[in-house]
Design brief:
Order of helices and strands: HHHEEEEE
Structural class: alpha+beta
Strand content: 15-25%
Radius of gyration: 18 Å
Number of domains: 2
Strand order of the largest sheet: 3-2-5
Number of strands: 5
Length: about 100
């Protein structure tokens, strides 16, 4: 049985209002599946505008297995005030320099 199938079976058979089965917390295959299907596919909130106040500043956040920062966001030269004050990063974008690390 694949990890994906096992995960789906456990989700469908779990008791409502109880924590997830142990495999969700300890099984390396479940962790890899989470990274591949959620964290490496979707945008993740990485910070807010005030953390990168000057043009060219970066923030970095570790995502997944990476020990070093594996994603970054940058601030454009100037952003219209109508743009939301939050930044996001995809899990696979490498960072080359950092102004602030988390």
């Amino acid at each position: 049985m694949s990890s994906r199938s096992e995960m789906l079976d456990l989700l469908q058979s779990r008791q409502k209002l109880f924590s997830l089965p142990q495999a969700f917390y300890k099984d390396p295959a479940f962790y890899e599946l989470d990274l591949d299907t959620i964290f490496y596919r979707e945008w993740i909130l990485a910070g807010v505008e005030c953390e990168i106040a000057q043009p060219g500043e970066y923030i970095t956040v570790p995502v997944g297995r990476a020990r070093s920062s594996s994603s970054a966001t940058t601030r454009a030269r100037s952003a219209p005030s109508s743009i939301p004050a939050a930044t996001a990063a995809r899990g696979s974008a490498p960072a080359t320099r950092a102004r602030r690390e988390r």
